[in-house]
Write a structure and sequence with these properties.
412 residues, mainly alpha, 3-stranded antiparallel β-sheet, 54% helix, 8% strand
Amino acid sequence: MSVAPAKPHVLAVRDFARRVREHLFSHILPFWCGPAVDLEHGGWMGWLANDLTPDRTQPKGLIVHSRILWAFAAVHQLQPDPLYRQMADRAFAYVMNQFWDPQYGGAFWRLDDRGNVRDDSKKIYGQAFCIFALTEFHRAFPSAPALARAQELFELIERHAHDAKFGGYIEVCRRDWSAADPEARLSEKDLNEKKSMNNHLHVLEAYTNLHRVAPSAEVALRLRELIQLFLQRILDSRTGHLHHFFDEAWQVRSDSYTFGHDIEASWLLGEAAEELGDATLRAETRQVALRMASVVRAEGLAADGGLYYEGKAGQVIDRGRECWPQAEAVVGFLSAFQLGGEVEYLESAHRVWDYIEQNLVDRVHGEWFWRLNPDGQPDPKLPKVSEWKGPYHATRACLETLRRLEQIPSRV
């Protein structure tokens, strides 16, 4: 019996998936199971240069350890492996034993190299990633303690950081969860404003995952509020870009945008609306996602397939290529293809992946370079591992790409 040959685009999709899977399991994960692990003091290394030289004066951050926990829990669900379970358990134990505050609850922001508390503030962005990681750990390995901690974090955030008057969340609380004025920003490079897009984007992501594993009216209420804040306050409906910083009453305090956050939000908003099962919200976020993807592709996607970093007033103002926006572009363009059916988005996702493999992947020491400067060379000041540089964006991009590509051949 003869078999009809596969269409060329279907073969391309299958090859795309093969390359992504191979990259995830043969390149990204071995790095985080190997040189990035801190065998001397526990957890993972706080800082490794591009050549893997450590700097033990640098801190160990809640963000990267939560993201590592999420990554191994998520990967284990696709391909169960004792090593991934071991890494997930290691990360869970380190977060719970070293970062968790036994007195006031919640997670400390930063430790030193030996695991001593260096910054005891409760930055909501960090608490959100802790929820995201704990709920994924519960999804992979049903864990009542992990789910209980995630739900406790939700209650702490809602009690101390939610703005009942204007909606949304403040950026930072002190260790005892009191307001952290006047220093309220997430990091030194951010504006010292009451509210930020980035904080709300990842609270949205965390609450989406919490609702997946433990749906409740309280979580659904806040998730719906977050979606509406993006649609009504954070998104600039004139330009299709996200504003970055706001005062307490949501007055805009910034004038630039990042293409990576725009394309990331385009698909995360859709995931949140899908989780709520609200047809009206799904329709709204679908239109927004397609608009944002169109703007990013037109304004931020370079001829070589890489995504520029930052724009302002319709112009690119930072032509550097950071690694995480490339990862988000692959997923965001695939999502746009699924939503609208335009093959150009599928092609754009493929082009960005080509750019990643050809330019960002470090074939000598592993993982991805953090940033390529406009001259195309890796930024020598930025490390391979830090409190901000982990496996989250790359791993999530691979997992989401594989999931979405599985759905594509029957549609094209």
